[in-house]
From TrEMBL:
Annotated organism of origin: Penicilliopsis zonata CBS 506.65
Entries under InterPro entries matching the protein: Macro_dom, Macro_dom-like
Name of protein: Macro domain-containing protein
SUPFAM superfamilies linked to this entry: Macro domain-like (SSF52949)
Domain Macro residue range list: 28-214
Stretches the record annotates as Disordered: 223-339
Length: 339
């Protein structure tokens, strides 16, 4: 699938999405409507590396040295200088974020945040994945403001290789952003906050969740014109407003699909962190190359990036007998499944 570079002005706000009936009112909204917020928040299904915004948020791992998924796409598009800068950052903790230059990307900066590996964190406490995921969004927003960024686009952190269910991830992300915007200290700090999804399952989760936290305002409804049969439709002016073409199929990931942590049997003891001599809490140690694994090449220059770290996580966990992969799930199915 071809993705074109998208300037900020062409990324639809939630307000425009309501007017074009691309978003529907929620049956039970949990927040009050705000025109200001609906003009700040955006949702688009696109390749995040092509967004011309101030900063984009990468779903990184603790090494910050690259990986698969959106992390791989960002490193490839940014070029080898990115991993060089990342080497000096000393990694990043889960739930935290660090910022770098964007090199060859059309945005100005990249914020790298490390989302929770869902099954591992949930085994440590039912609320841990959510609180760590919220922290990713909060820290990224804070970093953006500290660095004078006015627009920020988030990938759907943890919803790929790290296995966070799409709907729960969307709720935590959107609610945390709403809380940030509601805080008096943050008024006027960010002009645009974009949720950038890639797969249909995540797009659907955002379409269902945004209306709960950012309900339509009167103005969002007003651009609809009433037809003789009583149905409302977008006014001609609105119809003239162009939206980027939505993809017609799920993008084909540019990396080998990795099995997710499907049926993870974590030891029921209090300290699942240490399995044999392996620490499963820390994917830092799992991301390095083995001697015989190839070094990924970014453009023409050979640069070391860590090799599908989450696959390494899975392998290390599997070899520790705490992962029971369900054979009925091919890796292709796993990629599409929302669990
Ligand atoms: N643009 C926007 N979103 C994308 C793109 C893209 N080009 N490519 C994938 N996504 P993932 P995680 C979406 O797996 O779950 C890496 O190896 C994807 O559909 O990239 O946080 C890191 O190094 C999904 O919704 O990140 C870590 O080891 C979302 O990005 C690990 O994966 C996140 O999927 C992080 O796992």
């Amino acid at each position: 699938m071809e993705y074109t570079c998208l300037p900020l002005s062409e990324i639809p706000t939630v307000s425009l999405l309501y007017k074009l009936k691309r978003l529907n009112q929620a049956a039970f909204p949990v927040a009050t409507p705000s025109q200001t917020f609906n003009d700040i928040i955006s949702h688009i299904r696109h390749d995040i590396t092509n967004l011309q915004v101030d900063c984009i948020v990468n779903a990184a791992n603790k090494s910050l040295l690259g990986g698969s998924g959106v992390d791989g796409a960002i490193h490839r598009a940014a070029g080898p200088d990115l991993v060089r800068e990342c080497r000096g950052l000393d990694g990043c903790e889960t739930g935290d974020a660090k910022i770098t230059a964007a090199y060859r990307l059309p945005c100005k900066r990249i914020i790298h945040t490390v989302g929770p590996i869902y099954q591992i964190e949930v085994s440590r406490g039912i609320r841990r994945p959510e609180s760590l995921l919220r922290s990713c969004y909060r820290r990224s927003l804070e970093l953006a403001v500290e660095n004078g960024m006015k627009s920020i686009a988030f990938a759907a952190i943890s919803t790929g290789v790290y296995g966070y269910p799409s709907r729960g991830a969307a709720e935590a992300a959107i609610d945390e952003v709403r809380k940030f915007l509601d805080e008096p200290n943050n008024v006027g700090k960010l002009e645009r906050i974009i949720f950038c999804t890639f797969e249909r399952k995540d797009e659907r989760a955002y379409e269902e969740t945004i209306p709960q936290f950012f309900p339509p305002t009167q103005l969002d409804h007003e651009s609809l014109v009433q037809s003789t049969n009583g149905e409302s439709s977008p006014s001609p002016e609105l119809l003239a407003a162009t939206l980027p073409d939505p993809p017609t199929m799920d993008p084909v990931p540019d990396y080998e699909p990795q099995p997710k942590h499907k049926k993870m049997k974590i030891n029921s003891g209090d300290s699942p962190q240490v399995i044999g001599d392996k620490k499963i809490e820390d994917d830092w140690e799992e991301v390095g190359h083995s001697e015989d694994e190839p070094i990924e090449t970014l453009d023409d220059e050979p640069v070391e990036v860590d090799n599908a770290p989450s696959a390494a996580d899975v392998r290390s966990v599997q070899s520790s007998s705490i992962l029971d992969m369900d054979d009925s799930h091919s890796s292709e199915n796993l990629l599409q499944k929302d669990w």
